[in-house]
Amino acid sequence: MLYIVGTPIGNLDDMSIRQAKTLSQAEIILAEDTRSTSFLIEKIKEKFNYSINPNQKIISYYKEKEFEKLPEILEWLEDGRNIALSSEAGMPLISDPGFLLISTCVKRNIPFTVIPGPSAVTTAVVYSGFNPKQYMFLGFLPKKESELIKLIGKIKEVKKLFPDSIFVAFDSPMRINESLKLLQEHYIEGQVVVARELTKKFEEITREKIKELEEREYKGEITLVLK
Predict the structure, then answer these.
(1) Are both 103 and 124 inside the same structural domain?
(2) Which residues of the chain have pLDDT under 50?
């Protein structure tokens, strides 16, 4: 059986019993980052006092490995192996590896189970203070200026059809200031909340005008909420 396991987005106390049991019992863990997954397994042993499958293997499974690893993983599943897919943080597939595997499983009628967990998307939406009745997740904002400007134009078109919609996106601390600059220029009437390092020690939620947000310095994981 294949288990898609969400993991804490920062605070290890958010680990659920179901997540811990699934990861501790898995024969194979497909890990976006083997170091962080190994650390998580050690914390499961400490926090839950679970014994770890003695034959467990943690295998590197990041974006560039998805196609290469697919045939072997499918063979394991057909052989009845107990496999868990986990991201470095959050839910696999959501701006993380896993879509190729899941789409292939759906086509081949290979069963899988989703073990849910914390989400930076919904956490940021609630923190924003905006009405969450309609929201759209955009994934990571485009790196290229021209593509981001196009996306902003599409957001404005959606707002015409659904005025109450809000939008959630991830961004890099290396690009966030440039992204905010373009939002300031092309999303003039919009409002933006920057959620940084969600659930971690230095968690920060910043609600200011876009111009003021643009002038700040950012570090760590960043989630934007646009209104």
Answers:
(1) no
(2) none
Position 2, amino acid: L
pLDDT confidence of residue 176: 96
Sign of CA dihedral 61, 66, 69, 71: positive
Q: Please indicate, yes or no, whether residues 111 and 163 belong to a single structural domain of this protein.
A: no
Are 17 and 105 part of one and the same domain? yes
Please provide the distance, in angstroms rounded to a whole number, between the alpha carbons at the two ends of the chain: 41
pLDDT of 6: 96
User: Exposure of 37 by Cβ count < 10 A (0-12 exposed, 13-18 middle, 19+ buried)?
Assistant: buried
CATH number for the domain spanning 185: value is 3.30.950.10
**Taking Cα atoms as reference points, which of 74, 140, 81 lies closest to residue 102?**
74
In this structure, the dihedral spanned by the alpha carbons of residues 216, 220, 223 and 226, taken in order and rounded to 10 degrees, is 10
Residue-level pLDDT at 165: 96
Q: CB neighbours of 15 closer than 8 A, spacing ≥ 6?
A: 7, 8, 40, 43, 44, 47, 117
**Which pLDDT does position 208 carry in this prediction?**
86
Tell me the pTM. Answer: 0.90
Element (H, E) at 22: helix 17-25
- Domain span at 201: 120-226
pLDDT at 188: 79
Residues 118, 205: Cα–Cα separation, whole Å:
17
